[in-house]
């Protein structure tokens, strides 16, 4: 465990004692998300060198007075974690997704939760379109072939294996802010948009399908932009893939477990769908190695939220949420 604000003098130690304790729950280096002036307003604890339960066992006095947690997307905040932090009042996650947080338990315990709001929506939508264009026009595959001297510049390559995006029918799963950003971008490419969502949206005229199988049947492409929860886990299964058909493409910029990954691999290997662009994976941080040998897949390392511009934005946002909460002001991007 590190005490982030290493105190050198007794005065500084005393000052720190009066600041709200914020526990950083994320990968090494994640604590840099809390920058001055915000970082100076809190007593920051970082357990990144120890698993949280070990930190709690050796630093019970700290855990008992942690008032806020600042966490990252891949770092679960389960009921067990919450039990280790009896004074917790606020959880700030630097992610748009909240599938790593037991929101029901937070609600029950009266712990407020703030997230990344729409900070990453445009970047994620940009990446979705980038992945789709790459899968269709085989940019990464051609790049690899040229560099490995497997291919010379030839007119045969495009004719044999690349496809046109303009005019394609695209089904978006989850028409929240990210889904809408994807829709707007793809409309500019002349694509026809329809969607599946928990409910029909009154603010768009895109056709709505209440079933993902029907959405897949009626489209060339599926772009997954919805939250992961008990209802959506493995919603993209073999039935959906077969409905999408041989030329069909799946782009996933949401959460890996929306797709039944084993079935996706099988469909890609047997060419039962045309291709996939994946920024997220079922067993992150691991990526199933069978993807590596497939030329109809473009892979990206869960990068949709890591542009330089958005990193600066999220640093401000987490600080402002913490500051607002401890000044009794409304959270900037509340979840609960
Ligand atoms: O995946 C990234 C996020 O949830 O913000």
TrEMBL record:
UniProt key word NAD: yes
GO biological process, alphabetically ordered: photorespiration
Record's keyword terms, sorted: NAD, NADP, Oxidoreductase, Pyruvate
InterPro entries for the chain: D-isomer_2-hydroxyacid_DH (IPR050223), D-isomer_2_OHA_DH_cat_dom (IPR006139), D-isomer_DH_NAD-bd (IPR006140), NAD(P)-bd_dom_sf (IPR036291)
Parts forming coiled coils: none
GO CC terms of this entry: cytosol
Top-level taxon: Eukaryota
First-level EC class: oxidoreductase
Record carries keyword Oxidoreductase: yes
MF (Gene Ontology): glyoxylate reductase (NADPH) activity; hydroxypyruvate reductase [NAD(P)H] activity; NAD binding
Enzyme Commission number, as recorded: 1.1.1.79
PANTHER family in the record: 2-HYDROXYACID DEHYDROGENASE-RELATED (PTHR10996), D-GLYCERATE DEHYDROGENASE_HYDROXYPYRUVATE REDUCTASE (PTHR10996:SF234)
Stated name of the protein: glyoxylate reductase (NADP(+))
Organism in which the protein naturally occurs: Glycine soja
